[in-house]
Amino acid sequence: MTLPDYLVLGGYFLMMIGIGAYCATRINKQEDFFLGGRGFGKLLQTFAAFGAGTGSSDPVNTGRTTFTGGMSGMWSVMFWLFVTPFYWITGVWYRRMRHLTLGDWFVERYESRGLGAAYSIFGVLFFMIYGSMFFSAIAKTAEPMIMPPTATAAVATADPSTATATDEADDNTVSVLGTKMELKNVLIPVIAVVVVLYGIAGGLAAAYFTDLIQGLCIIGLSVMLIPIGLGALSDNPELNPGGDKTGFEVMHDQLPESYFDIIGSSAAEFSLLYLGAIVLANLTGIVVQPHFIATGGGSAKTEYNARVGLVVGNFLKRFCTLGWVLTALIAATLYADVPALVKEPDLTWGYASMQLLGPGFRGLMLACLLAALMSSVDAQMVVGAGLIVRNLYVPFLRPQASERECLWAGRLTGMIVVAGSCFFALTFYDMLEQLELTFWFPLVFAAPFWIGMYWRKANGRAAWTTVIYCLLFFFVIPYFGPQVFSGLRTNQDLMTRTPHTVTTTQAIASKSLLRRKLTEANTAWTAAGQGLTGPELDKHTASKPRSISPEKIEIPGPDGMQVIEAGVTRLPSVKTSKSNSIFWKSISPVDKSVKLAVIDTTQVDEHTVRETLEYPEGTELHGEGNLKLNLMFYQPLGIDLAAQSKSSLNALGLVPKIVMPFLVMIVASLLTRKNSEEALDRYYAKMKTPVDPDPEADARKLEAAYADPSTCERVKLLPGSSLEFQKPTTEDVVGFIISVIVCFAIIGI
After folding, report:
1. Distances (CA, A) of 102 to 35, 108, 115, 266, 619
2. With contact defined as beta carbons under 8 Å apart, do 718 and 725 qualify?
3. Dihedral through CA 220, CA 222, CA 224, CA 230, nearest 10?
4. Which of 33, 64, 73, 539 has the highest Cβ tally under 10 A?
5. Residue 693, domain extent
6. Does residue 495 belong to any structural domain of this protein?
7. 314 and 84 in contact (C-beta within 8 Å)?
8. How far is CA 296 from the centre of its chain?
9. For residue 514, is it within any domain?
10. What digits encode the pLDDT tens for the residues 582-635?
11. How many domains does the chain have?
C-alpha cells in the first residue's frame, strides 16, 4: 500500500469517529442510545441490516471457495438467501414489542426477571464470540494488502527464484516501535478502539449512520472490481494474444466448465434435504439473536420501514455476493499461476484488490473491508450494552438508576463487549470453532421465543426447562461426558463412521490449469537444481519446464519430458473424502503407527476410479473431540448412519437440535401452570396492536387495547383458542411472495 492508501484509511476512521461525536450531542435518554429514538427510515434500516449481516469474512470466504471450486463456492454465504422472505413477517415483531432489548421480551412474556438476565448473559457471550469471528478475519483480509513490497513483488512475479525472499518477508508481522508483532495483534485492537470511540459516543444512531456510509462503499467497490478485472483479462497479452476476446470470453476460455456450474461437482453436499435443514435451522435461530431487536426492525419509525429495511438490506448482501463470486472468478483466471493463492486461497480477495485497484482505492477497499467488521460489531456492542444495563444492572443492582446513570453504564459495558470479542479473537483464532459456537448458541432460547410468540400455554417454568435441556445436550454432556466417563471414547458402539474414499478422475486440462502446472513445475525444478554442478547441472537444465504455446506446455514427468495440451490431455484429479465420525469430531487409532489400507477399488466410469480405505481389522479406535449427542437419537430407529451421504448426515444432525427443544418446551408447558391471564392478555394485545409512529398516539392505542383485550380476537386466525396466530394481511402475503420471487431471480442471475 502507498501513502495515499494510508491517508484514505486514516481519513475514513476519523470520519467514523466524527459521526460518533455528532450523534452523541443528540442523546438524552436510554431509547436514544440503545435504539436511536426509534426514528429510522427505510434507508438507514436497510443499511443497518446490510451492515449487521455483512462481515469482513464474507468476501474472504466467498473468494476462497470460488477460487478453488468455481461458482458453487457462493453457497458458503448464500444459504441465508432462502430465509430472507420470512424477514418480511418477523420485521413487524420487534417493532410491536416496543422493548429496548430482547431480554425485556422474556421478562414481559414469561414474567421472569431471571429469564431475562439469563438471556442477557447469553446475548453478551454470543456477541463476544460472534464478534471475535469477524475480528479473526481481519488478518486474512489485510495481509495481502499490507504485505511488504518485497513480498508482494515476489508473489506477483510467481518466479521460483524469489521464493526464499517471499517466505522470509511474508511472515504476517509488522514492526511497532521497533518491536515485531503479528499483524492481527496490531489490527484487532486498533479497529476495536475505533469502534468503541464512535459507538460509545453516538450509540445506535452513530452505528447506523456509519453503516450507511460503509455499506455504500462496500457495494460500490464490490461492483468496481468487476469492470476493472474484466478489462485486465481482455488486455492481458498472455491470456488474450489476439486481443479480440472480451473478459467473459477469456474467463470461459481459461477456466474449466465446472467452474460455471452453480452446484459444482459435489452436488451431494447441497442436496435439497440439507438445504431445507439449513434454512430451518437459520430461521429458528436468527430471530432470537440479540441485535435483531434493533437491526431486525425495533429501531424503525414504522412497521413498514422495519419490514423494508430488514428484507432489502439482506437482499443487498446477496447481490453483493454475486459480485464477490464474479471477482473471484476473475482472480481465478488472472492469478491461476500465483503460488501464494494456490497455497492460501483465503488471500484471493485481498490480493485481487491489491493488484486491480490503484493508489487510494486500495486503502478505501481495505477500509471498507474493515468497515464490514465495524458495521457488524458496532450494533452488537450497543445492543450488548443494553442487555447488561436493562436486564442485569438496573433490575438486580441499581433499580433506582437515573437515565444519565444508565447511559454511562451502557457506554462502559459496551467497551466490555468489544474487549471480550478481542479476547476471543486473539485467544481462539480458529474461525471454524467460533462459527460452530455461534450456531448452537441462539438455539438455546429459540424454542421459548417461537412458542411464546404464538401459544398462551407456554410459561416460564417450561422455558427454564428448555434452556437447561439445551445447555445440557448442546454443551455440558457433549463436552464433560467423555471427561467424566473416559470409557466412552473407546466404546465400539460409538465408533461408527462413513467410508474413507480416494477418487481419481482423469480430467481434461484447462488453460488455467496449464499455467498452474507450469508454475508448480518451475518451483520444483528450481528447488531440485540447488547445488548441482557439472554434468548434473547440464542434465537438469535440459529438463527445464517451458511454455510451447498458450495451449501447450512441456514439464518433467515420471518418464521424461511430458507435453500437456489444454482441451486434449487428461490429468489426474484426486479428491479425498475423509471418513466422517458419526458420534465424535474424529476417530483415530490408539496406536498412531497404524495406517489406512485400500480394501476395495471401484471403476466408476471410463476415467474415474474410487478406492475405499480402512484400518486393519482389529484396530483399536479412539474417539476425539466432543460427543455428538444429536445423532445418537437415531440409534433406536435403526437408521444406518454410516451409509448416509455427507449432506444427509449434516441434515440429520441438525434435526434433533431444532426439533427436540420445541418438543421439550411443549411437553413442559402442558405439565406446568401457565402465566397469569392478565400478563398474557396485555402481551398479546400489544403484539396485535399496530405501531403508530407518534409515541403519544401509540400509547393511547395501547391503553385502549389493554382496557379491552377482547377486541384483538377478531384478528386471530383461530378465535377462542390458545393459539395466537394472526390472520395474514394483504401486505403480509404480497410482500412474502415478492421476496420469494426475488430469491429465485438472484439464483437465476
Report:
1. 12, 10, 11, 40, 52
2. yes
3. -160
4. 33
5. 676-748
6. no
7. yes
8. 18
9. no
10. 899 889 998 888 999 999 999 988 889 999 999 998 889 999 988 888 888 888
11. 2
